[in-house]
Amino acid sequence: MDPAPARYMIRINGHLGATMLSAFPAMAPQHHGAHTVLTGLLDQSALYGVLAVIEALGLDLLELRKLTPDRESPGSGHHRSP
Amino acid sequence: MTIISAPAGSGKTSLVRAWAGRPGQPRRLAVLQVQRDQQDAQQFWLALLDAVRHASATTGRAEPPAGTPDFNAPAMVDRVLSELADACGGVTLVVDDLHELTSPEALAQLTRLLTNLPPQVHAILTTRHDVRLGLHQLRLAGELAEIRAADLRFSERETRELLDASGIELSAAGAALLHQRTEGWAAGLRLAAISLAGHPDPERFVAEFSGSDRTVAEYLLAEMLDRQPPDVQDLLLRTSLLDRVNGELADLLTGRPGSEPILLDLEDANAFVESLDPGRTWFRYHHLLADFLRLELRRTLPAEGPVLHRRAAEWFIRQGQVVNAIRQTQAAGDWADAARLLADHSFSLTLDGQAQTMQALVRAFPPGADHPELALVRAMGDLAQGRLDEAAAHLAVAETYAETTPPDRRRRLGVAIASLQLALARRRGHLAGVIEQARFLASPVTGQSDEDIALGNDLRAVALMNLGTVEAWSLGLPDAERHLREGAVLARKIGRPYLEVGCLAQLGFAYIFHGAAMPKIDSFATTQRRCREAIALAERYGWGTEPVIAPALMTLAGTMVWLGEFDEGERWLRRTERALQTDTGPDIRLLLHQTAGILHAGRGRRQEALEEFGAAEDLASQLEGSQALASQMTGWLLATQARLGMTGEARALLAALDDERASSGEIRNARAVICLAEGDPAGALDALHDVLDVTAPVLGYVTVVEAHLLAGLAHRELGDQRAANQAVERALALAESDRVVLPFAMTGSAGLLEALPRHQTAHAALLADILDILHGASPAAKEQSSLPPAEELSPGELRVLRYLPTNLSRPEIAGELSVSPNTVSAHIRSIYAKLQVRDRSSAVRRARELRLLAAAGRTR
């Protein structure tokens, strides 16, 4: 397992309001259509912590992706740079 | 079995409740709600056992389930299974919120429970996500039903039914829209129903909700909260940081009276608040609501959080709810206070069976921050896990820290540290020296407040148990007896049955050997009685197979073997093994192998005995110092090797022993066995000389019994039958008061006994019993159950009965017993009547079948 923190993108159904967003202090939110996209630098245990919060708050998880350094846009594909 | 696996708010718990509460439901219901982030296997199992016992209505036959410092999970699963099997009628066992159980140990044992359920039990598990339980066997057998999120979603028709049942008037289009927006999510629909009830314009509410992009949960939770009056909103926010709340606590956190009626109203309105007890005094919020409220509290009243946590912590301390108090203190960010609370209560929490909770609390401290108080708690965790070097290192840190604390705390910490040092020393087998350092433990701990005294008493009782235990293991018997007795009395006084059981169990062990070259009156019988009393007390609390009672179980097994009751001894030994299956300490395992070894040796299975003695010797080499019974163990190993013809190995081992060990009676006996095996009976007699004249140190008179028998064998080899007979007679005389059989079996003395003319022995009854056992006819144990019960003989009759197998006449028996011949005749008539026999030889036979002869020497 990769021990270094990496940038992750998490897509959730619906717009998160101020209350729900306060549960993800380490993630930057953006609205994409009817979805909320959270991005942030997380190590593995922080990532599982975020997933547990999503589960606890009854949120609808749509997508989870690790972003590569040169392609940070959430819309880009999941190729890894060598 | 049924598993309901679906996300938060899918209606899992409601479904189970509705199903279990349906009319005509004939099954008993046992419900366990798993606590938030449950990391403590024992707390989980105690709660489960409690739920099962309530459902099976078997309460009242024993004490309520109580925690122990050394939890035996497999034994607990057996207990739950037997409660379930005993319950009459069907039982439905519900484990709600299984995803909160994060103890891998508890999950593994739960798998065992679920795959071994009695046929009349139906288990239902609810969880937010799939939990790793090894249930593929059940799945393959078609015994497992699964209900998942898709099954729980409300259809459009069900959505309309829910709205109708809640008295909400909404158009068909409105209901369809609501269903579409919530996607049939149960929590969403119920939250919507709460907001819709009494809403002036339900259609507009649904339209607005439907037009919003916000998540269903947040939109509806915020709506519900907004629609509450300000004081209710305030109460919900301020109490959200508790897992459970009651009126008093809510008043304290809101600073206003009148919280209880609000909580009752919320529950009545089905507003995600539910009471936890039939009297409706404690409440909890639905997890979804609680998590939302906590976020809202932190966002809108950021400064209030620590204040509220501190207030809650103070209340919990006053209520004696230490774990909750520590959690709240941690949440307030008062880490130093939390560390001190945890250290001060660490012994009491351990005794309460919360050792794993305590370690979870330690893990909750931020990494890197240095709290030297925690070293003590960490040492306890290390000891429990068998990490002895880490425990020693943490104890050293704790000692340094203790020197910097004020005198009253220093004293208490000192007792705690010394007590743990003793436990550590015992596990390492490093007994020399520690007792001297720990002597001060025996004097009382002084305290100011009631709480100080209570903590001090817990500490002192633990200290007395640990001190007495180490003393027993190093054969400091008078001290061991005094400290263990004192510990047991104190434990009883302060309501710590675990410590009372622990002290009594060690007392039983302390008695098996008493260092005397002559038997005391009925010492084995006394030991057995003590062990049985300790075991009975342990059983009352459900600890009959916990590690704490293992010393008594083992000692009882050992005495059975010494008395030649091999089958009974084996049963107790099996139970000891079960009690020790979670114990990793080499010290007590060593005894387990040793006892198994003498059992095999007694039955003449020398190869098996050798393996057990070898395993015990291996464990002994892991201990730093030599253990109390080392000379005995080594002696048995050497003798068994010699008897198997491995005289070379035995000689090599013997040569490696130090002088002190080699001069003990037990090793001298072993040397004699080696000489006999080498065909050197004169050498054997030479080796035995100091044991026979009782100048060599011995662990107990049984060593002397053995020496006489070995001398008898040597004399016979030398052709001196007269001397052999005298030696056997001396062995019988020593063995008589306890009716010890094992040395006769281990030395292979059947031939010696048979050669002894009956008119030359005063111990014919014992001799006959021993021969019965040596010839494999374990006296009538197998037939016993098929025989009609005999009326119980009086003590006087039993005394006479003992002489019936001898050649003594009635007047001679009267002479032996210092009573008149008429009394003896009266007793004999009564014995014949009670045993339903007509003559002396059939009386003897019948008495032997009923094991009355063996018991006669050991009656109270």
Write a structural description.
The complex is a heterodimer of chains A (82) and B (860). Helices cover 21% and strands 34% of the residues of chain A. With 82 residues, chain A is of the alpha+beta class. In chain A, strand 2 (28-32) and strand 3 form a beta hairpin. The longest helix of chain A has 13 residues, at 44-56. In chain B, 49% of the residues are buried. In chain B, strand 7 and strand 8 form a beta hairpin. Chain B has six domains: 2-150, P-loop containing nucleotide triphosphate hydrolases (Rossmann fold), CATH 3.40.50.300; 156-226; 230-302, Orthogonal Bundle (Arc Repressor Mutant, subunit A), CATH 1.10.10; 335-492; 511-774, Tetratricopeptide repeat domain (Serine Threonine Protein Phosphatase 5, Tetratricopeptide repeat), CATH 1.25.40; 784-856, Arc Repressor Mutant, subunit A (Orthogonal Bundle), CATH 1.10.10.10. With 860 residues, chain B is mainly alpha-helical. In chain B, helix 31 (586-602) packs antiparallel against helix 32.
